[in-house]
């Protein structure tokens, strides 16, 4: 029996592709290598699923060889349509007030389950534990499972994800399947990933969050103010994750010097005057308590100790020279980034199937008619905050419709 569409991979993009194809009347089969579809959706947004972002229609929030590539799919299935689509599936969304949308139930499982249910209700078929090992161009296409099973299809959607979080099923299979068909794959790197920092500041401040600005002077990178979280290995949180793509690329030239501005709302002179007035107001306080109410209380003592300054000294002994040194540290605390936590902890993939070989409006291969791509397998990497799922929904929707011949 020949299916109209076989979707390889039952993640966010594959489920959406399967659903849009099935709803347009096509006979669809999703082949998922894991025991159930949507395993990565379950871990998104710490189990709450930040399913899109108010800014996610803007191509400036996507990285890759050519961010304009995203325009066609994002315009065809924009944020407003995504919110309406999920509301119709029974999953209304809420904006947390900063443009980050979550399901009203704050349950990522509800998102995955609703997609799967709707797909099955539309007549879609699914085989789990079916790892695809080869694709032979059609028509009809022959899809070969790792165990020797074969399926035949008029068109194929490759939605295997990238290499991030391989425990959820995406370990780069899609790149080799596309490569074997003659598609170029650009170099891949972990993205949206925590950063390793030399020294033990992270150890002392483990779990502490600050609102800061992060700079990498060598590369001219700057991000924030946003939240940064210290961890035993280094730093995480939106600020570090947001810069991790660029930092990851810069790390190819060796460890990278970073500067952390812990009081970004004040420039050097303002901060110096502020410390001076605080010291005059509280001369008997310990130096480590000088910024109580401004920074989390563990931060200043740790910063001082790292620089060999005793935080237990009374503020009164703060010389002009020490104050200026302190200003320098608070405005530009030096950190050395030695690496990222790698694929296991990455939320996205930078690089992927070369988009110059894919038609942006339909997501069909320019090499093999009848082959479509969707999601993270393509060289498209969104920013942290709902952008990667938006790309998965939009590209999945477009690839599914076109694979079914319905757009
Ligand atoms: C911890 C974490 C948190 C995240 N949080 C967010 C968030 O809140 N908001 C956001 O926008 N993005 C988030 N992301 C990113 C987002 O989840 C992904 O970009 C998105 O899920 C990619 O969808 P996809 O369908 O392309 O790939 P995937 O979701 O990876 O799905 C690919 C599927 O293909 C299957 N597969 C792979 N190879 C084969 C094969 N050979 N045969 C058959 N099946 C195969 C896999 O098992 C998998 O089910 C997060 C990612 C992680 C890891």
TrEMBL record:
Domain RsdA/BaiN/AoA(So)-like insert: 190-346
Keyword Flavoprotein carried by entry: yes
Record keywords, A-Z: FAD, Flavoprotein
Top-level lineage group: Bacteria
Domain called RsdA/BaiN/AoA(So)-like Rossmann fold-like: residue spans: 4-401
Cofactor(s) this protein cannot do without: FAD
Entry keyword annotation includes Transcription: no
InterPro entries found in the cross-reference section: BaiN-like (IPR004792), BaiN-like_dom_sf (IPR023166), FAD/NAD-bd_sf (IPR036188), RsdA/BaiN/AoA(So)-like_dom (IPR055178), RsdA/BaiN/AoA(So)_Rossmann (IPR057661)
Protein's recorded name: Aminoacetone oxidase family FAD-binding enzyme
Organism encoding this protein: Candidatus Coatesbacteria bacterium RBG_13_66_14
Lineage: Bacteria, Candidatus Coatesiibacteriota
């Amino acid at each position: 029996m020949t299916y109209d569409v076989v979707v390889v991979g039952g993640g966010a993009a594959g489920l959406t592709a399967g659903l849009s194809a099935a709803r347009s009347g096509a006979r669809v089969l999703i082949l998922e290598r894991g025991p159930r579809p949507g395993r990565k959706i379950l871990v998104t947004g710490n189990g709450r699923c930040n399913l899109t972002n108010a800014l996610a229609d803007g191509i400036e929030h996507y990285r890759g060889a050519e961010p304009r590539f995203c325009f066609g799919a994002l315009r065809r299935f924009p944020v407003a349509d995504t919110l309406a689509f999920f509301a119709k599936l029974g999953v209304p969304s809420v904006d947390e007030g900063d443009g980050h949308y979550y399901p009203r139930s704050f349950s990522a499982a509800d998102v995955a389950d609703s997609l799967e249910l709707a797909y099955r209700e539309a007549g879609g078929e699914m085989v789990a534990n079916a790892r695809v090992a080869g694709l032979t161009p059609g028509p009809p296409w022959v899809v070969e499972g790792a165990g020797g099973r074969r399926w035949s299809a008029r068109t194929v959607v490759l939605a295997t994800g990238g290499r991030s979080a391989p425990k959820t099923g995406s370990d780069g299979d899609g790149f080799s399947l596309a490569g074997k068909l003659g598609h170029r794959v650009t170099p891949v790197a972990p993205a949206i990933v925590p950063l390793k920092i030399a020294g033990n500041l992270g150890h002392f401040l483990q779990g502490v969050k600050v609102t800061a600005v992060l700079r990498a002077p060598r590369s001219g990178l700057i991000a924030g103010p946003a939240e940064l979280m210290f961890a035993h290995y280094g730093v995480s949180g939106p600020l570090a994750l947001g810069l991790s793509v660029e930092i990851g690329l810069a790390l190819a030239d060796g460890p990278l010097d970073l500067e952390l501005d812990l009081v970004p709302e004040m420039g050097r002179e303002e901060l110096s005057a502020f410390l001076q007035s605080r010291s005059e107001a509280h001369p008997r306080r310990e130096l480590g308590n000088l910024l109580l109410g401004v920074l989390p209380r563990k931060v200043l003592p740790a910063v001082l100790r790292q620089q060999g300054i005793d935080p237990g000294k009374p503020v009164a002994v703060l010389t002009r020279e020490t104050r200026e040194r302190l200003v320098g540290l608070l405005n530009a605390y030096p950190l050395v980034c030695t690496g990222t936590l790698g694929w296991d902890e990455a939320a996205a993939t930078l690089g992927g199937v070369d988009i110059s070989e894919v038609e942006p409006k339909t997501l069909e291969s320019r090499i093999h008619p009848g082959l479509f791509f969707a999601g993270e397998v393509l060289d498209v990497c969104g920013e942290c905050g709902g952008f990667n799922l938006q790309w998965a929904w939009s590209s999945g929707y477009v690839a599914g419709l076109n694979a079914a011949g319905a757009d």
